[in-house]
Each structure stands twice: as C-alpha cells, then as structure tokens.
Amino acid sequence: MKKLLILGSGTGGTIMANKMRKDLPRNEWDITIVDQIKTHYYQPGFLFIPFGYYKEADVIKPKNNFIPMGVNLIFKEIDQVDGENNKVTLKDGEVLKYDILIIATGSKIAPEETPGLKGELWQKNVFDFYTIEGAKALAGFFKTWEGGELVIDIADMPIKCPVAPLEFSFFADAFFIERGMRDKVNITYVTPLDGAFTKPRASKMLGGLLSEKNINLVTNFFISEVDNENRKIIDFGGQEISFDCLVTIPIHKGDDMIERSGLADELGFVPADKNTLQSTQFNNIFVIGDTGNFPTSKAGSVVHFQAEILHENLFCFIENRPFTGSFDGHSNCYIETGHGKGALIDFNYDTEPLPGSFPFPGIGPFGLLKESRMNHYGKLMFRWIYWHILLKGKEMPIDSQMTMAGKKME
C-alpha cells in the first residue's frame, strides 16, 4: 500500500484530502492527514468580528466534518519532516512514512518578532484581527471606545490576504460613521509598500478610496518597535506615529516545524516551484497555500486554484509522466469597502488587476476594480460556498487559470 501524507488540515490540506481520496484507488493508496488543531476557522470572517457583524460561532466548525471517509485523521503536533528518508516524526515520537508528502501547514502571525508589539498594551490598546482571539478582543474594545487615533499598521510583507488591512480600514470608517462618532476617530493606514496595494492599478483605486474616506495613508514605513509607554510606533528611519488604538498585521512566518525540518527559506516558508508546486528540495514533496514561498497572494482563492493544478500534477507524478498542470498565480479577492458595498480584483503572476466584469464577460454579475453592492453580496455568499463546496473539493464555475475574458485593457 502506497502512502499519501498531508500535513495541515486547513483549506489546502482539506481540499486535497477530498480530491485525492475521490480519485486514488482505495486498495492501492492510504491517505493520512495530520494537524494539531481540531477547529477549522473561516479566516475571511475574522474581519467582520470586531465590528459586530459576525460572532465566533459564524466562523468555526470541527475539522473532522470536512475530512472524507477513507482518510486517516491524526490530531497531533508535528515535530519534523525527514525528506531524505521519506518520513515525518510527530511530537510524541510516532513516525509516519510516505511516498508522497503534501505540506499545507499555512502561515501564522509572529508579533513577538517586533520589539514591544506584545508588550503591556497587547490586547488592551494593541490588537490583531488575524486570530480569533485578537478579533474578539478588538470587538470588546470597540464597544466602549470613545475615539482617538486609530492606526492600522502592516509590519512587513508577505501577509495572509493582503487586502484585509484595507478592508478593515474601510469597515472602520463605516462603523464609526454609523455610530455617529467618525469625527472623533482619526484613521491612519500605515504600510511598508509605496502605495495602498502591491499592484499599480489596484493601488491607485484603493488609495483613492482611502482618500475619499478621509483615511490617512503613510507609505514606506517599516516598523522597528512599539513604544508602549508613549503609545507610538517607530520605523527604522526614526519616524513616529502616535496611536490610541493600534491594529497590527504582524510579521507572518511558516510553521515552526518547517524550519526544524530544514525546509524553510529566510521567512520560514517552503521553497517550491511557482508553477508545478513541487518542492525545490525533494521531488516527492509538494506544497500548497500559504506555507509556500510563491510570489502571489496568501489567500483562499489561491489555494483553491492551486488545488486544481496540484491534483493534476500529483497524478502526473504517480504515473511518471511530465507535469501538465501549471499554476499561473491566479488570485481573486473581494474587498469590503463599507456601507454594504465591495470591490473585486482578479489577477495572476503576469497580469495586474484590470477593470471589467467577472466571471462572465459583459454579464458579471461582479464588477472588477469598482465598488458595487453585488460585490459585497459576493463576499457574504462566499462563506456558504467555502463550507459546502470549496472545502469538499467540489467543482466551481471559475477556471483555475486566469482569463482575460471580460477584462478591459486601458
């Protein structure tokens, strides 16, 4: 019996477990998935919690609800991967052998990497919303906050869902307007980028929205420390920004076991071919999602599109033939802009976000690089799609390869 081992039962690992169990012969292949956490979090929903739109119950379900029959599910902590000997050791000493390994352990925030960030003000005046604990703590803070300097700061790139900090800023603007206290809150968006986003056209559009909503934009700011006593963030050049409430998007890194296994790059992510998703170190190790060092967004849509390619390439590998799947960096993101509206961007490695209609040319129903109510509804609908279709590895009417159909070249 051959063995397929999947590390991580988040979005990528769960999708691959479903796809591969469906298509691999059960009398030939044993499939095992390992994770230390039993709860599956719908991470895009964390954004809604600080503003009271979602509660914790709206974004969590048991992971075993989504793992198919015929897949062994082990809830234990992973110690390390031994790529030379095709085995994985768990923290309790158990050893799992594999013929093919998929690493899908995601990424996590590392606030401890920035001096002072997890200081005395942590979850008192300094919050993240990339964890369920941070989002809930911030929701509690906003219930009684009377206003002041609200600073949203990105420590460094890459981060999960690069548009989420912008969405938070737009949501905050709408939230405080609706509470009748926007004039008491000065919102500042601080980024290490030279604009609001990584892609020029999208950066121009999103930067314009920040300006329209009277949100200050500070660029090229690389945070060096948080001064808890004086409530300031300081960059490496000495620039200081004062805050009464700091919402941080901390440095991201891969799972600690990646580094212990000698598989990590300098940021803690796994180097892999950006098109085939195969590890650059071992040809029977494949990588999906946030844990890879792919030059694209660390977002759920990327995992979904990568899963189609990885599924195809795994069968190429098993059948000892050249890879036929090539991931093009396809990503699309709904962007909440507040007051029941949203925007949408669709891009890949080579093509930046363009205006147009999605997914059907001329019909939509979603508009690219523009605000609309339909885009907002798309964001809300995606939660149902995530739980009932995407995680279960079912087909969706969106091609894994980005298409130019419906896009307008300017």
Textual characterization of the structure:
This protein has about 400 residues and is an alpha/beta fold. It has 3 domains: about 1-105 and about 255-320, FAD/NAD(P)-binding domain; about 120-250, FAD/NAD(P)-binding domain; about 330-390, no CATH class. About 25% of the residues lie in helices and about 25% in strands. It has helices at about 10-25, 130-145, 165-180, 200-210, 255-260, 300-320, 375-390, and strands at about 1-5, 30-35, 40, 60, 70-75, 80, 85-90, 95, 100-105, 105-110, 125, 150-155, 185-190, 215-220, 225, 230-235, 240, 245-250, 250-255, 285, 330-340, 340-345, 355-360, 365-370. A 5-stranded parallel beta sheet has the order 5-2-1-9-20, with helices on one face. A hairpin with a 4-residue loop joins strand 6 and strand 7 (about 85-90). It starts with a strand and ends in a 20-residue tail after the last helix.
Find the CATH superfamily of the largest domain: FAD/NAD(P)-binding domain
Q: Kindly give the count of domains.
A: 3
Mean pLDDT equals 95
- Count the beta strands: 24
Query: Strand-residue fraction?
Result: 25-35%
Given helix and strand content, the structural type is alpha/beta
| Shape verdict | globular
Low-pLDDT segments, ≥5 res: none
CATH class of the largest domain: Alpha Beta
| Overall CATH architecture of the largest domain | 3-Layer(bba) Sandwich
Q: What fraction, in percent, of the residue positions are helical?
A: 10-25%
How is the biggest beta sheet arranged?
Answer: 5 strands, parallel
The span between the termini is 55 Å
What is the CATH fold-level name of the largest domain? FAD/NAD(P)-binding domain
Strand order of the largest sheet: 5-2-1-9-20
